[in-house]
Amino acid sequence: MAHKNKENYSPYKARKEKAGISLKDQHLSKAQPQKRDFKPEILYSVEEANDRFADIFRNHKFACSHEERKKLAGFYHLLMKNQEHQNFTRLFKLKDVAIKHFIDSLIITEMVEIEFPLIDVGTGPGFPGIPLKIRYPDAKILLGEGVQKRVEFLKTVREELQLKNLDIIGRNINEHFMYPVQSVITRAVEDIPNTLRNVLSCLQLGGRVYFMKGPGVDPEIKMASDQMAEFYKLDKDIAYDLKHTQNHRRLVVYRKIKNAPLPEDPDEEVE
Going from the N-terminus, what domains does the chain have, and what CATH number goes with each? Predict the structure, then answer.
């Protein structure tokens, strides 16, 4: 028969206390996960990022001019420099930014021809709007974003990279926004029917809405067919992968076929 430990002595507890670790502290350390670090381990200079982007784009068979790549490197540097305090993105590694932000934003230009003016709805810190502006420096592009810290960052990017003909709308885009545009683009911000409804007033007849989505977008397409078929027609549905990766994407394009009555009291804020 085992003898009871009348003194309630624990060799395990004694070892921990000798090492200066209380069981209470150890329990708390397990119960409370470490706070995630939101800054990159390495912040590359614009020149270093430019050189590394050249290798990454070449390896992934992605065409990008030297001038475009240098601007993208400048955008990367600003994004990562502000990342620690602003938490703009979940991607910190330069390669991930190059592929999942920059190639992801620009690869659609190889599939469709975009007409301008273009508005990027829910652009966040500038995706895909800033890379598209870098690719089309003379085109009229608008960035719609409702979070103020992101709006201020976009203004900084516009100034630092000297991006002309780029308007920033510091608010969420809804049916009251009436600035006329020929194209709308959005990257996984909200479901398709809501966006189609929100841009009814600003998108011109015959204009297109480009949705950058994941592969499981079929339920949204079905909802759009049920709710918005009077005003939009499904124009393209393209399944593709980011070049030489296992990242699957869908580009879903709608064309506006009918105008809706305009709502009252437009409230545009273009800066």
Answer: 46-256 (3.40.50.150)
